[in-house]
Amino acid sequence: MNAATSGSSSHEAEGSAIATAEVATSPGRGRPRDATRDAALRNAALEVLAEVGYRALTMDAVAAHARAGKATIYRRWESKLELVIDTCTQLVQRNIPEPDHGSIERDLGEFLSAFATFLSGPIGKAAQALVGELPHEPELAAAFRESFLLPQRDMLRRLIDRGIERGEIRDAAPVDTVVELAGAALIHRLMLTGEPLDQRFVDRLLYDALLPLLR
Amino acid sequence: MNAATSGSSSHEAEGSAIATAEVATSPGRGRPRDATRDAALRNAALEVLAEVGYRALTMDAVAAHARAGKATIYRRWESKLELVIDTCTQLVQRNIPEPDHGSIERDLGEFLSAFATFLSGPIGKAAQALVGELPHEPELAAAFRESFLLPQRDMLRRLIDRGIERGEIRDAAPVDTVVELAGAALIHRLMLTGEPLDQRFVDRLLYDALLPLLR
Amino acid sequence: MNAATSGSSSHEAEGSAIATAEVATSPGRGRPRDATRDAALRNAALEVLAEVGYRALTMDAVAAHARAGKATIYRRWESKLELVIDTCTQLVQRNIPEPDHGSIERDLGEFLSAFATFLSGPIGKAAQALVGELPHEPELAAAFRESFLLPQRDMLRRLIDRGIERGEIRDAAPVDTVVELAGAALIHRLMLTGEPLDQRFVDRLLYDALLPLLR
Amino acid sequence: MNAATSGSSSHEAEGSAIATAEVATSPGRGRPRDATRDAALRNAALEVLAEVGYRALTMDAVAAHARAGKATIYRRWESKLELVIDTCTQLVQRNIPEPDHGSIERDLGEFLSAFATFLSGPIGKAAQALVGELPHEPELAAAFRESFLLPQRDMLRRLIDRGIERGEIRDAAPVDTVVELAGAALIHRLMLTGEPLDQRFVDRLLYDALLPLLR
DNA sequence: CGATAATCGAGACGGTACGTCGAGTCTTTAG
DNA sequence: CTAAAGACTCGACGTACCGTCTCGATTATCG
């Protein structure tokens, strides 16, 4: 679906349900795709998305923002949906550094703060905009989970695993459930209640629920 | 905004940001509204919503489904959004009976099961469809929270309060956090991961996280 | 193709290859077509046509000129071509009064002058714009000939027939050829050479060619 | 505008409004233009023109037909219009041999037949396609008249002039009018009525109108 | 009872965005 | 410098949907 993406990150292409190959006739003839347009378009999409939301985002607006023709967009993405999800997943990669300070309390607190900050930005808004489409767009759902939910969940699990190795976690701790609850609590606040993802909330979540369940 | 709704439930009209008054000119002149059309339209809206989702839901489709004219819809709701939220909130009322068996374990378990079942139905799908619109539609957000989030949260809190009165809950239990986590876990599964809201999940949530945090 | 046309002039619908029935669900339900929009659109089309020519005429421009939506145009005509030909044929009707002064010289002269004036206006420009499409649009060709060429040819023939009855025309006069040459000369000037269709030209055509061939 | 054309026919370049100089930088550096591409492109243009008409003719189609890139076309002609007119005017040259048999009747008849045959071919179709553009493209109009109308008119006039010298033409004959009518009659049939340019028509034109007016 | 007024289904209305396609330009690799 | 290939910007195409308005036909209350 996106030649630029699949071309630039070969090791991820297999894992992603979105960045299917089907294109990237790069060694062929003709003028190659202008890589700067990819970035410009994704950037424009993110700007428009942050300004007006998913539904009010129009392809014309994105094109105008990037001083591009609509055809240049449709050459890369088949629909508004794909443009948006690719734009987001692209930005999700490596935005939250994995903490490792030898303490589950500190690692977990740092991760939650970082993730909360991350979610409070444009990506969070974009993700929210996509939720309503998930049930009717299986490919989007797969990509969304793979690049939005899984990395965060896996990082969280690694944090806890290191705590287990250090003996900080009690034996019967419901690790899976804690991992699920951590993400759920943040996202629920962000998307449903609309309350702020501030440090108070993070602390309460950490010290009232997650840590007590773990140790 | 909705004559039918505000007319039939006068005590809720004040509390709701949606069901504003302006209406129910029933004893006026002219042909009175056909009450059967209200139900038919809401029904049609729900069908279409379940079939194609919020974005692909068109007013023409709803009208056609209900064999009604579009004006008949717009006479009752000001927009597609209002139609959908009213349709949903209407159905939310009194769909989950409040359990009271003298045991926090049993009450909580029953509530979670009932809520999970409820969410797995069309209302859950509809709610998911609305999430993406919340940030850009303050009225919708208010109505959504009031009729979707609050009732469930309040019921949950009452359950726990009764447990406190019975001495089942320990003193320092993080009640607010538990209430928030319960809802968050269910909704996160429903809308984000797409995994089933089955009894196994409910049990795990209950016995691994909620109850341990409470007692 | 055009409900308004075929509905309003039933006796012409059969003769015309363009104004096919297929629509005119007039006695049906729903809001009837606004007849004033027909005129406004045709008027706008003619204005735009005169300004920029056929190729540069865009449906958006016509719609904007008439303060109408594009759908309102496409509801009446299936394409730009149909809009233009219907606009023109509509205006051709009864634009040249048939002279009858009891003299072939005077009748013919008056007719040629009137036709020359008529062709020099917007209809002439529009007709020229359509010529290039005729070979690839059989329906257009039929309509064009029927409403543009035939009326003029028939009127010319009636003029001459009256002259024959009055004994002004010699027996062996090549009436068909004269009729053909009269139209051809005017149209050739208009569309091919671009020279003006002035009185000098009309007189020369009349006294140097047409009358000598007839009497 | 067209290097190839102006290079190959230097004596006509001055007279033509189209074949401007700028030209055949042949002794320059780099790879020389492939002369076979000129013919291939003109040929492709003519084919496409005959198939689908001027409006539906696309540069991509011409390029594909000639297995050429679009740049190869635009290097030679500045626009679609120029390509078409150059293609046509190129083919007009020397397609009608000038008859000279010492008899106005025979010369005129032969010329009319040859011209009718010529018009019935692809050039006639192409010419028709251009008519609608003439009012809005002055350069095209000039080129069209110069290479399409004038040569035929001049040849016709020379024919008649020779007849005058031979004493075949009466003194007061309206030569200009006859010349104009001859061309107009053929073109009118070709482009407007669509009737065939057959020998019957040519004979009728010749013996019923042109010759009687001349002698 | 008749007049008045609001309802109903149906669908036309002005707008706006869609996704496609064509014109003419630019940029690559290959010669 | 030219060739083929094809990406680029721009803008028109014809379609679909939104929310409004207008039609003929009901269906109630009011005078």
What features would you highlight for this structure?
homotetramer; 215 residues; Tetracycline Repressor, domain 2; 2 domains; disordered N terminus; DNA-binding; AcrR family transcriptional regulator (chains A, B, C, D); DNA-binding transcription factor activity (chains A, B, C, D); transcription regulation (chains A, B, C, D); HTH_TetR (chains A, B, C, D); DNA-binding (chains A, B, C, D)
Written account of the structure:
Four copies of one chain form a homotetramer. Chain A contains eleven helices and no strands. The first copy, chain A, is 67% helix and 0% strand. Chain A has helices at 3-8, 10-13, 35-52, 59-65, 70-74, 80-92, 104-120, 122-131, 138-165, 175-193, 199-214. The longest helix of chain A has 28 residues, at 138-165. By secondary structure, chain A is mainly alpha-helical. The relative contact order of chain A is 0.11. Chain A folds into two domains: 3-91, Tetracycline Repressor, domain 2 (Orthogonal Bundle), CATH 1.10.357.10; 96-214, Orthogonal Bundle (Tetracycline Repressor, domain 2). Chains in contact: A-B, C-D. The interface between A and B is large, with 40 and 40 residues. Chain B binds a DNA duplex (31 and 31 nucleotides) through helix 4 and helix 5. Chains A, B, C, D: Keywords: DNA-binding, Transcription, Transcription regulation. Chains A, B, C, D: Residues 58-77 bind DNA. Chains A, B, C, D: Residues 1-35 are annotated as: Disordered. Chains A, B, C, D: InterPro entries: DNA-bd_HTH_TetR-type_CS, Homeodomain-like_sf, HTH-type_TetR-like_transc_reg, HTH_TetR, Tet_transcr_reg_TetR-rel_C_sf, TetR_C. Chains A, B, C, D: Residues 35-95 form the HTH tetR-type domain.
